Batch of 4 targets.
Target 1
Amino acid sequence: MVIGLLDRVIARIDSMRDEMARTLSELISIPAIGPDNGGEGEYDKAARLLDIIKDWGFTKIERYDAPDPRVKHGVRPNILAYYEGSDPNASRLWILSHLDVVPPGDLSKWTVTKPFEPVIRDGKVYGRGSEDNGQAIVSSLYAVKALMELGVKPRRTVVLAFVSDEETGSKYGLGYLVEKHRELFRDNDLVLVPDAGVPDGSFIEIAEKSILWVKIKITGAQTHASTPHRGINAHAVASRITSNLYRYLYKKYSERDELFDPPLSTFEPTMTFNPSNAPNIIPGEYSVVFDCRILPKYSIDDVLRDMKNTCKNTIRRFKGLAGGKPGFNIEVLQRLDAPAPTPKDSEIVRLLERALREVRGIQPRVGGIGGGTVAALFRKIGLPAAVWSTIDEMAHQPNEYAKIDNLVNDAKVMAALMMY
């Protein structure tokens, strides 16, 4: 019986293909850039989304505004749309996507269209935020709308969440809901976060590495390059520190976990800063940034302690230059301690695997990633979360697009999850 209903729902989603593309285009046309990236926030986009769905038939729609004086109207909206299920004992299903987008970047690289002037071409919807995360917004909405139009109640209550501030830390988005409205979440809730994936939809993410970004600033003594004995070359010291850290951290934290790709912790220098603006100046300051993606089995505190000790030991070798020695400071730019992974045999993973097999004919693989998603916030409060979608990985790129096939096919999988 469920299989027959699902077939009808899938057919209805297919019939909505053009409408889904138009709705995505409409949402793309409203910029929703957070203030940390120079934008006015998500208010206008949230208002339009609420206007679109107000008469659809959701059981209830709630809005939770996180105060932020930097943005339009002083709030960052978070929307929850509920569609009540037929089985009150079944776990609720959350599908969470985000309203905010990143800035366009170099406008000269946008050759198909302007970032917020979406176009539909060759089976794709182009524009900033199309894949990240507009595709997820539209797919989740139309999975529910197909059920509504057919008069089908899902087995489990569905909570569609559309949150702010995912791109810059989630303090005003899911983080706000977890901190200020913990009562929204039940211990047996299931969570899908459609905010990462692969082009064939075959990968389910259940784990993330810890993330640590640090800036190490070396202070020396500036001098003319022809008289290096009169100064302390901060560049030379930083180069030695960078090399020593790279070798030491990779050697000490070398255990592998095949759940992840790559299966090891990574410690990569990514940026350098030097105020010297001439080739004949020995710089008195030099900074290097490390991006560290650390397996959950390791402690970020241990890594920071080893970084500090390595800097100290390296600097000792430069003592005596120009009657002094260099100094250093370690600044943590970002720190995200990875929670325990979602178990491979958790209900959300098993249901998603089933949906992909039955709806798409896909036998998915399960694993971890080095990047960070809001799924980590769910895992930290004990809720199993799976991250999945079908994407070409165009996020944050010029000429970003979402394939309409992906919009439609992801909605089918989401609908199946609601009905199981």
Target 2
Amino acid sequence: MKKIKASTLRTLTILAFVLLVIIGLAFHTGTGTISAFGYKTISAICPLGSLEAQLASKTFLPQVLISLAVFVLITILFGRIFCAWACPVPLFRKWFPKNNSKINHAEKEVHASSQQTSKTADSSYFVLGGALASSFVFGFPVFCLICPVGLTFAVLIGAWRLIQFNEPTWSLLIFPVILVLELVFYRYSCSKFCPLGALISLVSRLNIFMRPKIDQKVCMQTSKGIECKLCKSVCNEAIDLHEPAKASTLSRCTKCRDCADVCPMSAIKFPFFSQKNDKHL
């Protein structure tokens, strides 16, 4: 029986989350959106949005602690799994052509520049700090206005209200335009500019489960000396599993499993429990 690729499973999982949102809208179950970690009133609060809201209002909101606690627990157990298996943005990005040489050249320059500075600082952490600081200064969650995850479901909710209640809004025109611009011109936004991903990565440093690991006895590079960078080439975070990875580097792993699928020797596994001090992760 042919093995189902992880990319196919991820697509099905994301579509299941989208279906859950539609069911919530249709039957008023209060299950919230895909960017939320909670239920009913708590489900309206994503971890980054909740922090921004508290900084904007300059007040402490006790009710968000439950949502944040669930977010921390899920991230400790599964790492940055949200970014690959729940967030719809990477899936949508595949629908846009990559043959625009000018855009690709600019993307590569930004991506290369970010990789060169990744050892000392990660640009997404600066964006995270800017998002939180701007919320405090301006008194409202600034990043929520351009968050691709939020925009995606704002469009979905707006479309549903148009169909169900005949309530047309300008958001159905403005939000899709902003979203398309982000998907086309900021192809590396998930790994280099997303503050939500950065926040998840910070907590993911505590994750010790399902971390990718190379079987050196099977790996073509370590066992036969044949240079192979296929796993790194398909990784959206450019993680090189052949190098001793630091916790801060592997914390950005989204568990997408593309590296395992592309490995010709099937040498990459995601064991449930991994020691953080493994020599090769």
Target 3
Amino acid sequence: MTHRISDLESLERLYGVPAAPSIRKEVDYLHPHYRAFIEAAPFVALATSGPQGLDVSPRGDPAGFVHVEDEHTLLLPDRRGNNRIDSLRNIIADPRAALLFLIPGVAETLRVNGRAEILADPALLERFAIGGKAPRTVLRMRVETVFFQCSRAVLRSRLWDPNAQVDRASLPSAGTILAALSGGEVGGQQYDDELPARLKTTMY
């Protein structure tokens, strides 16, 4: 524990002064260049905080599914899921939220921080309908800070490198995990066998 860093002075002495670009790239609105990233992204991770702790939830749809309402506002549909609604529970208690946008083939990511609220206005929900199916709610996020993250993490991870893809069969299946954690009450081979069809029919 002698090398534990527990104060800002020690931390800042270790890391030094931030590079000028890392400061200048942060703004408090959706600059047109940042808007281009959002409109090209088919995937975003939503981070929230609440009384039960932290949560990061994946959200995905065709590129541009997060709508830029204006330079200070984003709209994010909440699609069908497992009904745990961990993110939404957190937002009810604490509106602070963060988004991390990823674009296939692009090494930079985009980070947006702000405050979210949950809307269930029928006209708004209809705007986000796909195949005649609207989301149950839409998150409206008031933007506070926006900046792009440099490419190092994605490049180091080889995230978009086809040669680095992992064979799904090399990892435990969803049914295997559920069966192990539930003592066999749910999951198993039948769960795995039925999953592809279930995902197809319950996507929206």
Target 4
Amino acid sequence: MDMQTGFRERLIAEGIVFPTGVDGLWGRSATFERIYAGLEAKITRLGAADGAETMRFPPAMAQATFEKSGYMKNFPHLAGSVHCFCGDDRAHRALLGQMERGENWLEGQEPAEIVMTPAACYPVYPIVAGRGPLGADGHLVDVESYCFRHEPSLEPTRLQLFRMREYVRMGTADQVLAFRERWIERAQSFVGDLELPFTVDIANDAFFGRAGKLMADSQRAQTLKFELLIPVNDALEPTACLSFNYHMTYFGDTWGMRTADGDAAQTACVGFGMERLTLALLRHHGFAIDSWPAGVRETLCLG
């Protein structure tokens, strides 16, 4: 097996994931979901004392909200829009004819005014901003959503639709930076309890176009993003399984979110790549959960 597909082929052969015919789009088994549920519960316990507000969202968001977020300025290559049929009987017959002839039947579809959610935290900011100024202590949200990024790949960890769990902190610079530092420490302890090898390093997002490198360099120079990396795929490069992001006042300015003092709110988030963490556990501990180290099974309440 080649270096890119070996782990993927083993996952398929063991019935852990189910291919759908589209790279980066997988079905998942009971074993996969059992591990996933254990991670979910543990992450909830890690953040329970912080008093976060819980928000859960579908994998799509309002087109108007998406446009205002500015995502298309930096990541147009990753975005996905939703279109649907809005025609009459005649248009329907024409569409069926196009399908029968193997023609492009999508050209007649119209925007549905929703787009695929690119990051779990994006729907949070306008909701919180719409409530008025933050309290003196700022605000914290525990959010989860399916996310879409158009990155078809044979790597099991690079999915087009995946679940992201985040804690999102909003407040002053001191509040959000202290939150990020606290979660960098928590996350290392958490992954250590899972008995997984990892490193934490400065990172950058996959900005688009000729200006993308300059933006990535600036992001790294300002240490706005860190990632916790775990070897998962057959390739030599480890996989980012958690990210720790400081947005400064970007979302505060975009949505008019203010602190109690009237300043633009700053934000930070910690994001857990849930499928990636699940796959990391399978890669390092094997496909039989009952044979995993006792400490890992205890951490995830897997019996």
